[in-house]
Amino acid sequence: MLKFEEQLGKYQSKIEEYLRNNCSVHPQQPQQTLFDSMRYSLLAGGKRLRPVLVFDFCRMCGGNWEKAMPFAAALEAIHTSSLIHDDLPCMDNDDYRRGRLTNHKVYGEDVAVLAGDALLIAAFSYISQSDYCADVRIRAVEYLADCVGELGMVGGQMLDIQSEQRQCTEQEVLDIQSRKTGALIRAAAVLGVLAGNGTQEQLKAAEDFADHIGLAFQIRDDMLDQIGDAQVLGKAVNTDGVKNTFVQIYGIEECDKLVNKHTALARQALHAFAENGFMLDLADYLIHRMK
Ligand code: GRG
Hints:
Layout: H1 4-22, H2 32-42, H3 49-60, H4 69-87, E1 96-97, E2 100-101, H5 103-107, H6 109-128, H7 134-148, H8 153-162, H9 170-195, H10 200-227, H11 230-233, H12 246-250, H13 252-269, H14 277-287
Antiparallel strand pairs: 1-2
Helix pairs in contact: 2-6, 3-4, 3-9, 4-6, 4-9, 7-9, 8-9, 9-10, 10-13, 13-14
The site of geranylgeranyl diphosphate has 22 residues, from α4, α6, α8, α9 and α10.
Protein backbone atom coordinates (compact mmCIF):
# COMPACT_ATOMS: atom_id res chain seq x y z
CA MET A 1 0.00 0.00 0.00
CA LEU A 2 1.25 3.48 -0.89
CA LYS A 3 1.83 6.20 1.69
CA PHE A 4 -1.33 8.16 2.59
CA GLU A 5 -0.61 11.25 0.45
CA GLU A 6 0.36 9.12 -2.54
CA GLN A 7 -2.74 6.96 -2.29
CA LEU A 8 -4.95 10.05 -1.89
CA GLY A 9 -3.32 11.61 -4.93
CA LYS A 10 -3.84 8.41 -6.91
CA TYR A 11 -7.55 8.25 -6.05
CA GLN A 12 -7.97 11.94 -6.90
CA SER A 13 -6.16 11.78 -10.23
CA LYS A 14 -8.07 8.64 -11.28
CA ILE A 15 -11.46 10.23 -10.65
CA GLU A 16 -10.35 13.47 -12.38
CA GLU A 17 -9.35 11.48 -15.44
CA TYR A 18 -12.57 9.48 -15.44
CA LEU A 19 -14.82 12.54 -15.08
CA ARG A 20 -12.91 14.40 -17.81
CA ASN A 21 -13.14 11.51 -20.29
CA ASN A 22 -16.62 10.21 -19.57
CA CYS A 23 -18.99 12.86 -18.26
CA SER A 24 -21.18 14.95 -20.57
CA VAL A 25 -19.02 14.33 -23.62
CA HIS A 26 -21.40 14.51 -26.62
CA PRO A 27 -19.57 16.15 -29.52
CA GLN A 28 -22.40 15.52 -31.99
CA GLN A 29 -25.22 17.05 -29.92
CA PRO A 30 -26.44 20.65 -30.15
CA GLN A 31 -26.79 21.34 -26.38
CA GLN A 32 -23.08 22.12 -26.10
CA THR A 33 -23.60 25.05 -23.69
CA LEU A 34 -25.33 22.72 -21.24
CA PHE A 35 -22.47 20.20 -21.40
CA ASP A 36 -19.90 22.99 -21.03
CA SER A 37 -21.73 24.30 -17.99
CA MET A 38 -21.90 20.83 -16.39
CA ARG A 39 -18.20 20.20 -17.04
CA TYR A 40 -17.23 23.70 -15.91
CA SER A 41 -18.34 22.87 -12.35
CA LEU A 42 -17.63 19.14 -12.40
CA LEU A 43 -14.03 19.63 -13.51
CA ALA A 44 -13.31 22.62 -11.28
CA GLY A 45 -11.28 20.62 -8.80
CA GLY A 46 -12.52 20.13 -5.29
CA LYS A 47 -11.18 17.61 -2.83
CA ARG A 48 -13.08 14.66 -4.33
CA LEU A 49 -13.78 13.42 -0.82
CA ARG A 50 -16.90 11.46 -1.75
CA PRO A 51 -15.22 9.49 -4.59
CA VAL A 52 -12.28 8.77 -2.26
CA LEU A 53 -14.72 7.31 0.28
CA VAL A 54 -16.32 5.12 -2.41
CA PHE A 55 -12.92 3.84 -3.56
CA ASP A 56 -11.44 3.08 -0.18
CA PHE A 57 -14.53 1.46 1.36
CA CYS A 58 -14.67 -0.74 -1.72
CA ARG A 59 -10.95 -1.58 -1.36
CA MET A 60 -11.27 -2.24 2.41
CA CYS A 61 -14.02 -4.78 1.63
CA GLY A 62 -11.70 -6.58 -0.78
CA GLY A 63 -13.24 -5.16 -3.97
CA ASN A 64 -11.58 -3.72 -7.08
CA TRP A 65 -11.83 0.03 -6.44
CA GLU A 66 -11.25 1.04 -10.06
CA LYS A 67 -14.38 -0.86 -11.05
CA ALA A 68 -16.30 1.42 -8.66
CA MET A 69 -15.49 4.45 -10.85
CA PRO A 70 -19.14 4.98 -12.02
CA PHE A 71 -20.32 4.96 -8.37
CA ALA A 72 -17.64 7.51 -7.46
CA ALA A 73 -18.54 9.68 -10.46
CA ALA A 74 -22.20 9.53 -9.44
CA LEU A 75 -21.39 10.85 -5.98
CA GLU A 76 -19.29 13.69 -7.39
CA ALA A 77 -21.94 14.58 -9.98
CA ILE A 78 -24.64 14.87 -7.30
CA HIS A 79 -22.34 16.81 -5.00
CA THR A 80 -21.52 19.22 -7.85
CA SER A 81 -25.20 19.61 -8.76
CA SER A 82 -25.97 20.58 -5.17
CA LEU A 83 -23.15 23.15 -5.16
CA ILE A 84 -24.42 24.73 -8.39
CA HIS A 85 -27.95 25.03 -6.99
CA ASP A 86 -26.72 26.13 -3.57
CA ASP A 87 -24.83 29.05 -5.15
CA LEU A 88 -27.82 30.38 -7.12
CA PRO A 89 -29.20 33.85 -6.29
CA CYS A 90 -32.40 32.24 -4.92
CA MET A 91 -30.29 30.17 -2.47
CA ASP A 92 -26.95 31.45 -1.11
CA ASN A 93 -26.21 33.85 -3.97
CA ASP A 94 -22.48 33.19 -4.10
CA ASP A 95 -20.04 34.49 -6.71
CA TYR A 96 -17.14 32.09 -6.20
CA ARG A 97 -16.83 28.33 -5.79
CA ARG A 98 -13.81 26.06 -6.08
CA GLY A 99 -11.68 29.09 -6.91
CA ARG A 100 -13.67 30.24 -9.91
CA LEU A 101 -16.84 32.15 -10.70
CA THR A 102 -19.98 30.24 -9.81
CA ASN A 103 -21.83 28.46 -12.58
CA HIS A 104 -24.67 30.97 -12.95
CA LYS A 105 -22.16 33.87 -13.09
CA VAL A 106 -20.65 32.31 -16.20
CA TYR A 107 -23.60 30.57 -17.89
CA GLY A 108 -26.61 32.43 -16.49
CA GLU A 109 -29.22 31.19 -14.02
CA ASP A 110 -31.30 29.34 -16.61
CA VAL A 111 -28.40 27.18 -17.79
CA ALA A 112 -27.04 26.70 -14.24
CA VAL A 113 -30.38 25.28 -13.07
CA LEU A 114 -30.38 22.85 -15.99
CA ALA A 115 -26.74 21.88 -15.43
CA GLY A 116 -27.57 21.00 -11.82
CA ASP A 117 -30.66 19.03 -12.92
CA ALA A 118 -28.75 17.12 -15.59
CA LEU A 119 -25.82 16.25 -13.28
CA LEU A 120 -28.24 14.89 -10.70
CA ILE A 121 -29.94 12.69 -13.28
CA ALA A 122 -26.64 11.64 -14.88
CA ALA A 123 -25.53 10.22 -11.53
CA PHE A 124 -28.28 7.61 -11.54
CA SER A 125 -27.51 6.79 -15.14
CA TYR A 126 -23.82 6.12 -14.29
CA ILE A 127 -24.86 3.63 -11.60
CA SER A 128 -27.51 1.96 -13.75
CA GLN A 129 -25.01 1.43 -16.57
CA SER A 130 -22.14 0.23 -14.36
CA ASP A 131 -20.69 -3.29 -14.51
CA TYR A 132 -22.27 -4.56 -11.28
CA CYS A 133 -25.07 -7.13 -11.07
CA ALA A 134 -28.64 -5.82 -11.04
CA ASP A 135 -29.03 -6.41 -7.30
CA VAL A 136 -26.02 -4.22 -6.42
CA ARG A 137 -27.08 -1.49 -8.87
CA ILE A 138 -30.63 -1.38 -7.51
CA ARG A 139 -29.45 -1.29 -3.90
CA ALA A 140 -27.03 1.53 -4.78
CA VAL A 141 -29.71 3.55 -6.58
CA GLU A 142 -32.17 3.05 -3.74
CA TYR A 143 -29.70 4.03 -1.01
CA LEU A 144 -28.43 7.06 -2.92
CA ALA A 145 -31.92 8.30 -3.84
CA ASP A 146 -32.96 8.14 -0.17
CA CYS A 147 -29.87 10.09 0.88
CA VAL A 148 -30.33 12.80 -1.75
CA GLY A 149 -34.10 13.20 -1.89
CA GLU A 150 -36.86 14.87 0.06
CA LEU A 151 -35.83 13.35 3.40
CA GLY A 152 -32.09 13.56 2.65
CA MET A 153 -29.98 16.37 1.20
CA VAL A 154 -32.85 18.24 -0.46
CA GLY A 155 -34.96 17.85 2.69
CA GLY A 156 -32.03 19.16 4.76
CA GLN A 157 -31.72 22.21 2.53
CA MET A 158 -35.46 22.79 2.98
CA LEU A 159 -35.10 22.69 6.77
CA ASP A 160 -32.18 25.09 6.48
CA ILE A 161 -34.27 27.54 4.45
CA GLN A 162 -37.21 27.24 6.86
CA SER A 163 -34.98 27.99 9.84
CA GLU A 164 -33.28 31.06 8.40
CA GLN A 165 -35.27 33.63 10.32
CA ARG A 166 -35.03 32.04 13.75
CA GLN A 167 -32.59 30.52 16.20
CA CYS A 168 -32.51 26.70 15.93
CA THR A 169 -31.96 24.32 18.81
CA GLU A 170 -28.81 22.21 18.90
CA GLN A 171 -30.88 19.17 17.91
CA GLU A 172 -32.31 20.98 14.91
CA VAL A 173 -28.86 22.03 13.68
CA LEU A 174 -27.65 18.44 14.06
CA ASP A 175 -30.65 17.18 12.11
CA ILE A 176 -30.11 19.69 9.28
CA GLN A 177 -26.43 18.74 9.08
CA SER A 178 -27.12 15.03 9.03
CA ARG A 179 -29.39 15.46 6.01
CA LYS A 180 -27.80 18.33 4.12
CA THR A 181 -24.14 17.26 4.32
CA GLY A 182 -24.08 13.95 6.18
CA ALA A 183 -26.42 11.95 3.98
CA LEU A 184 -24.28 12.19 0.84
CA ILE A 185 -21.13 11.29 2.78
CA ARG A 186 -23.01 8.28 4.20
CA ALA A 187 -24.07 7.30 0.67
CA ALA A 188 -20.45 7.47 -0.51
CA ALA A 189 -19.23 5.12 2.21
CA VAL A 190 -22.13 2.70 1.78
CA LEU A 191 -21.88 2.59 -2.03
CA GLY A 192 -18.21 1.72 -1.56
CA VAL A 193 -19.21 -1.24 0.64
CA LEU A 194 -21.85 -2.31 -1.89
CA ALA A 195 -19.27 -2.12 -4.71
CA GLY A 196 -16.85 -4.19 -2.64
CA ASN A 197 -19.48 -6.77 -1.75
CA GLY A 198 -18.97 -6.09 1.97
CA THR A 199 -20.82 -7.76 4.81
CA GLN A 200 -23.85 -6.42 6.67
CA GLU A 201 -21.55 -5.63 9.59
CA GLN A 202 -19.27 -3.61 7.32
CA LEU A 203 -22.24 -1.75 5.90
CA LYS A 204 -23.33 -0.75 9.40
CA ALA A 205 -19.75 0.25 10.31
CA ALA A 206 -19.52 2.39 7.15
CA GLU A 207 -22.70 4.23 8.18
CA ASP A 208 -21.35 4.72 11.66
CA PHE A 209 -18.03 6.04 10.35
CA ALA A 210 -19.75 8.35 7.88
CA ASP A 211 -22.12 9.80 10.47
CA HIS A 212 -19.24 10.83 12.70
CA ILE A 213 -16.90 11.99 9.92
CA GLY A 214 -19.78 13.88 8.25
CA LEU A 215 -20.51 15.74 11.47
CA ALA A 216 -16.81 16.52 12.05
CA PHE A 217 -16.60 17.67 8.41
CA GLN A 218 -19.55 20.07 8.71
CA ILE A 219 -18.34 21.50 12.03
CA ARG A 220 -14.94 22.12 10.41
CA ASP A 221 -16.74 23.67 7.42
CA ASP A 222 -18.54 26.11 9.73
CA MET A 223 -15.24 26.90 11.46
CA LEU A 224 -13.54 27.59 8.13
CA ASP A 225 -16.25 30.10 7.28
CA GLN A 226 -15.01 32.04 10.30
CA ILE A 227 -11.28 31.36 10.41
CA GLY A 228 -10.52 30.25 6.84
CA ASP A 229 -8.85 32.11 4.00
CA ALA A 230 -11.11 32.87 1.00
CA GLN A 231 -8.15 32.46 -1.35
CA VAL A 232 -7.37 28.96 -0.06
CA LEU A 233 -11.03 27.94 0.20
CA GLY A 234 -11.82 29.22 -3.30
CA LYS A 235 -15.06 30.81 -2.04
CA ALA A 236 -16.15 33.72 0.12
CA VAL A 237 -15.84 33.50 3.90
CA ASN A 238 -18.07 34.93 6.66
CA THR A 239 -21.15 34.09 4.62
CA ASP A 240 -22.92 32.15 7.39
CA GLY A 241 -23.95 35.32 9.25
CA VAL A 242 -27.72 34.76 9.15
CA LYS A 243 -27.53 30.97 9.33
CA ASN A 244 -27.69 28.50 12.17
CA THR A 245 -24.18 27.05 12.43
CA PHE A 246 -22.19 24.96 14.88
CA VAL A 247 -19.89 27.92 15.54
CA GLN A 248 -22.90 29.97 16.60
CA ILE A 249 -24.05 27.24 18.98
CA TYR A 250 -20.76 26.08 20.47
CA GLY A 251 -18.10 28.71 19.64
CA ILE A 252 -14.80 27.98 17.89
CA GLU A 253 -13.00 26.30 20.78
CA GLU A 254 -15.79 23.84 21.54
CA CYS A 255 -16.17 23.16 17.81
CA ASP A 256 -12.50 22.22 17.68
CA LYS A 257 -13.03 19.71 20.50
CA LEU A 258 -16.11 18.28 18.79
CA VAL A 259 -14.24 17.79 15.52
CA ASN A 260 -11.62 15.78 17.44
CA LYS A 261 -14.25 13.80 19.35
CA HIS A 262 -16.25 12.78 16.29
CA THR A 263 -13.10 11.98 14.32
CA ALA A 264 -12.06 9.61 17.11
CA LEU A 265 -15.50 7.96 17.04
CA ALA A 266 -15.31 7.65 13.25
CA ARG A 267 -11.91 5.97 13.56
CA GLN A 268 -13.33 3.49 16.08
CA ALA A 269 -15.96 2.37 13.58
CA LEU A 270 -13.16 1.31 11.23
CA HIS A 271 -12.38 -1.75 13.39
CA ALA A 272 -14.77 -3.66 11.14
CA PHE A 273 -12.22 -3.41 8.33
CA ALA A 274 -8.87 -5.19 8.27
CA GLU A 275 -6.84 -2.89 6.01
CA ASN A 276 -8.06 0.42 7.39
CA GLY A 277 -4.78 2.40 7.47
CA PHE A 278 -5.68 4.83 4.68
CA MET A 279 -9.11 5.61 6.11
CA LEU A 280 -7.69 6.16 9.61
CA ASP A 281 -5.24 8.66 8.10
CA LEU A 282 -7.96 10.31 6.02
CA ALA A 283 -10.03 10.95 9.15
CA ASP A 284 -7.05 12.64 10.81
CA TYR A 285 -6.21 14.59 7.67
CA LEU A 286 -9.73 16.10 7.59
CA ILE A 287 -9.42 17.49 11.14
CA HIS A 288 -6.80 19.99 10.06
CA ARG A 289 -8.05 20.76 6.56
CA MET A 290 -7.95 24.43 5.55
CA LYS A 291 -10.17 23.99 2.48
C1 GRG B 1 -29.65 19.62 -6.80
C2 GRG B 1 -29.26 17.48 -5.53
C3 GRG B 1 -29.59 18.91 -5.50
C4 GRG B 1 -29.81 19.51 -4.32
C5 GRG B 1 -30.39 20.86 -4.14
C6 GRG B 1 -28.94 23.22 -2.80
C7 GRG B 1 -29.29 21.91 -2.17
C8 GRG B 1 -30.50 21.20 -2.65
C9 GRG B 1 -28.56 21.38 -1.19
C10 GRG B 1 -27.32 21.99 -0.68
C11 GRG B 1 -26.39 20.94 -0.17
C12 GRG B 1 -25.05 21.52 0.19
C13 GRG B 1 -24.35 22.43 -0.78
C14 GRG B 1 -24.48 21.21 1.37
C15 GRG B 1 -23.15 21.67 1.80
C16 GRG B 1 -22.21 20.51 1.80
C17 GRG B 1 -20.76 20.94 1.90
C18 GRG B 1 -20.13 21.02 3.24
C19 GRG B 1 -20.08 21.21 0.78
C20 GRG B 1 -18.64 21.42 0.68
O1 GRG B 1 -18.08 20.17 0.30
P1 GRG B 1 -16.54 19.99 0.01
O2 GRG B 1 -15.75 20.75 1.05
O3 GRG B 1 -16.39 20.74 -1.39
O4 GRG B 1 -16.26 18.55 -0.12
P2 GRG B 1 -15.35 20.44 -2.57
O5 GRG B 1 -15.41 21.68 -3.43
O6 GRG B 1 -14.00 20.18 -1.99
O7 GRG B 1 -15.89 19.26 -3.33
